[in-house]
Amino acid sequence: MALIDCPECYKRISESAMGCPHCGFMLTRDVVVAQKKSQLKREQEAAEEAKRDERRMAIWFGGIVAAIILFFVFCVAVSSPHQYKPHWSDGVSDTSNAKQAPWLRGFSDSEKETILQESYLFDVAAKQLEKERD
Ligand SMILES: [Zn+2]
To answer: Is the pTM for the entire model greater than 0.70?
Structure first.
């Protein structure tokens, strides 16, 4: 048996009841039909609202994913250090060229030196590993 809201006290009652057992409101056929209609309308509105929420969430999610991808693309584009790698010969370092690299912008001169030295040591270690493998 379907349930409807009592138009008087808003409690859930059986649509086949003669009256509301809570407040004594007399149920007529018209009242039952009207209550069912408004209930159906409310349910449809709730379903539409849920669908709207879902769409809103999808847009948000898509936006966040796009922002993350853009961020990574930006990072790669800004950093790509390979083409600016300094040329080192036998441990003698000339960093004057390398210090002009755009990815070092914002660092002080001594910081640039440290970064370049470290990347040099990194290269040396990588080359040693390669040699050991051969
Ligand atoms: Zn009632």
So the answer is: no
